[in-house]
Each structure stands twice: as C-alpha cells, then as structure tokens.
ABC transporter ATP-binding protein
Amino acid sequence: MSETVLEVRNLQVEFSGDYSIVKAVDGISFQLNRGETLGIVGESGSGKSVTALGVMGLLQTPGRVSGGEIWFSTQANANPINLLELPPEEMQLHRGGDIAMIFQEPMSSLNPVYTIGFQLTEAIMRHQNVSTEQAKQIAIAGLQEVKLLPSDELIEQQYIETGHQAKLSQLVKQHKEAILERYPHQLSGGQLQRVMIAMAISCNPLLLIADEPTTALDVTVQATIVDLLGELQKSRDMAMIFITHDLGLISEIADYVAVMYKGKVVEYGAAAQIFSNPQHPYTKGLVACRPTLNRRPQKLLTVSDYMNAEQTSTGEVVIQAKEPPQPVEVTAEEIFARLNNLSEKPPLLQIRDLKVGFPVRGAFGGTKRYTMAVNGVSFDVKPGETLGLVGESGCGKTTLGRTLLRLIEPMSGHIIFDGQDITTLKGEPLQKLRREMQIVFQNPFSSLDPRMKIGDAVVEPLLIHSVGKTKKQRQERVAELLERVGLSADAMNRYPHQFSGGQRQRVCIARSLALNPKFIICDESVSALDVSVQAQVLNLLKELQDEFQLTYIFISHDLSVVKFMSDRILVMNRGQIVEQGTSESIYREPQEEYTQKLIASIPTGSPERMQSRHSL
C-alpha cells in the first residue's frame, strides 16, 4: 500500500476586504501518496496557487486559512502532523526541507544581487547540518541532476578532446564551480527554472509543489522541464503537486487531476480519464478551448459554450450546463481557395535581406562585434493574410516584428510597406506611417499605464494623430471600439487593475484599432492568458480581421495557436528563416529538424504522449 504523504481535508481560505470576505478556496479535499503526481488545473482566480500557498504556510494578509486540516507525513510509519497547528518556527523547518516549492517566474524568485551558488548553498545550509564546502558540492550535484551541468565524466571527456589532460581533476572542479559564480541575469529562463528545481530538491523533499513552472517558457523548454520533473519525481519517489491552467500539459505529467473553479474542486480523477472523457461542463470547456494540430475549426469553443455560472445572493456559484454548438471545420477546399485568392494580390509588406544586430562592447568600450538578432531575412505579406512567425525565445521573432514597425533600426535591408520603402523614414512621414501599422504586445498588464483610465488609453492615439473633430466624437469612437472587442462603454472610466488579463488584452486590441490600421503585429499576444481566455481573444482577432480586412503577423512559440490563426508560417531560428510554407504543410510535412522539435514539444494529451511521459 502506498504511503500517504499529504491529506487535505475541507480546506478553506478567505481574503478579507474593506466590505466583504472572498472565499478563495472553499472546502476542498484531496490525498496524495508518495511517488504520485497530482495536477491542479483551472483558470486564474480558481484557487490553485492559493491552495499551494496554504499548504506551504505562505499566505499573506489579508489572506488566511479559515478552516480545514492539512495532514503531512514527514517519514514512513510516523504519525502525520497537521501543518496548520504548527508554530511558525517549526513550520519553517519543514518548508524548504520536507516540502519544497517551485514558483512560476524564476527571475522574480531569485535575488538578482546574489550569485546562483550563494542562493543554492544558503538554502542547503538552512536545512542541513553541513559545511559551506559540503553545501557547494551538494549544489553542484543538484545542478548536474537537473542537467544544467554535465556529469564529471562528460566534462573530463570535453577537456581530453581539446588536449587539456594535464591537471584534469582541477579543470573539472573549476568548470563545475564556475556556474556557481554566475548571477541570475546571466542565465536564460529555462536555465533559471532548472536552478529553482535544483534548489527545491537539494534537501530531498517528500513533497514538491510546482506552481505554473513552465508558463513563461517556450514549448521546447517546457517539454524539457516537464520531462525533467517527471524523471526526478520517479527517481526520488517524491509526491508532487503540479499546478497549471493547461489540461493538455497536466495530462502528460499527472497521475490524478483536480479541476478547480471558483475555489471548489468540480472534478477529480485519473489524468487519462479527465482528459479523454471529462464529465463537468467546466472541464469540457477547458479541454475544448485549446487549439489542436490535427483540426482546423472556424472558431474555438470556450468555457461559456459549455456552461453558465451565476452567483446567488449568498455568494454561492450555481453552474448550469449547456449544449455546446457543433464546431464547424474549415475544409481543405476553403483553405486552398483562400490561399489562392491571397496569392493573386500584390504584397502589402515586402522584406528584403533585413539585418538587425546589437553591439557587443569590448573590454575598453569599443564595439568589437555585433550579435545578429535578424540575419538576412526576406519574405512578403499579402493584404488580409495572417502570417505566423514561430520559434524559441532568442530566435529573433520579436526583434523582427519591432523592426518592421521601425521601433528598432535595421543595420541593412529594405522594408517596403504598401509600395513605399519605409526603411529610412523619419519625422512626420514616419509618424503618419504609425496610423497604418500597430502592435499588440505580449503582456497586457505592462501594456497599460496603471494611472490612466481605459478611455484615456484608447483615446490617446486619436489625440496624437488629431483624429476626431470634437471630444464627443472621440469618446463615441472609444465606446464603439470597446463594445466591438466585447467590453461595455462604461469601461472607459475604470482603471486597468479593475480588469482581468483577458479584458486588458481586449483593451489593448481596441487601442490598436483606434486609427483603422491596415497591418497589426500580434507579439505573443495570448501567451500570458489562460487557455479559455486565449480562445476568446483568438476568436476576436479572427472576427476583427474579417470585419476590417486586417493583415496580421502573428508571433508565438506555440505552433498549435499559430496554426489556428495563420495562412502561412515562417519558422525562425538564430535570426534566420529556416522553413516556410502553408500552416497545413508546416504541420504535416515539416522539413527541418528544428520545426519537428517545435511540433513534438506541444502538449497534446494524446494517449501515446501520456503513456510515454508516465513510463519515465
């Protein structure tokens, strides 16, 4: 019989406001055995992270655990302890030792002024009675276990192959210790997340909580981190809680899944069962709203297609199931006809041998060389087309997009928009061009000034370009735009913090449409959103394209999203376009190994992928 590590009974967490109390977690219960992985899935605000913080004892005021029990077994055959009854000093001994947590954003979880080595050894020495040198060796072993450092044998082999056989042991020691001297800003997002995992497992925890550990990462890095967590969990026989909003991802790592909605667990069961045959309408909506690679619907279904949720006067949420509409597939004939129609049009945008580099300063201040972010890129975009641009972080996608808008100056090449070479435009001609070309950025939380009302943010482009004769005309235009993106005109008088992430992104889209542009760049514009909100925004972008005859460049690292949106796809790697073609051909017959890796990394929840992951 498996040993129970964690048992949560009727957990309740409340947040007190000035005039009300919000139940963030409302009476949830679950059990987790050693060697098992529990996936907790749901949208933002469902109570996933609050549950994890409650278990860790990290809730901050005004949040508090108002009821329930959290029983934790520190070792085999020992009597479990109720974590909620422990004094803070004793809870600190368990937190980071027996129970470890990996947070969503590694850059904000590590102190930027301390080296990686200092932060790793500090955590180890806090929970283990070891010397500084011993802690350093444990830290290095952890970095090797998470594959941020190669094994001693591989390091030795590298030095032998390069002719450095003298003082081999000393060279290996220096090589391993070098990474401990690096600062967080010197590592990529995937490397930082590996550091966080190494820190979490350094004290051999019985329970590991991973709270959205891959949300900010590319799909390829995400797949690597998920595989790594699966390997570590199996090899160490840890219990693990994996929190995410993506059911496709959770189905490939978890043994059991708890689906949370408004603080309650609305469905619980084996991962394969939850994904292949969901019972609750909310779960059905989460499964349906993510684009898939093997289907091309005209419109994505959303959670609201499966259920209505109403709050009663007592604060209880009542859910009513709905019969969702039958998805309408785009036929091969329709795709061919659209592509054929686009091919007959003259290009709206022509890019010829575009190069963008960033200077690397020498030791004494001189520029020695350039790092080429975009290196000799050429392509065309037709009016009304959506061109997808995919690749991992650092491949040059965002730099290319911003260069097309002249937000970054190119080193050489040509950008021809609507028949005009805009590569060297300056002053007033460049400002006029801004009316025709707009961008929707990745993060809706940082795209809006928190001190500016929504109405003022949307009207700002109209004022800059002197559009609208009177204040009333401009306000009417703002109200029209907000209503078109699914918000009410009343939103004009509210501030960004009063909106959800999806609503903020709708505001950003409304602002980009204010000047009736011909061309919009969507730069990872849905990657920061829940999958259900993502589906709503993707549907909205398609509707707006048809209504206003917009031309998009859609930038993302998620090929399933790009395939749903795009007519053609460009695949970028290291500043160059390595493959291009129609969205169907790129998916069905990828020619480059890099493209094949991108496609293989997308979590699909297919039985084959689930079996592959669970057999680790």
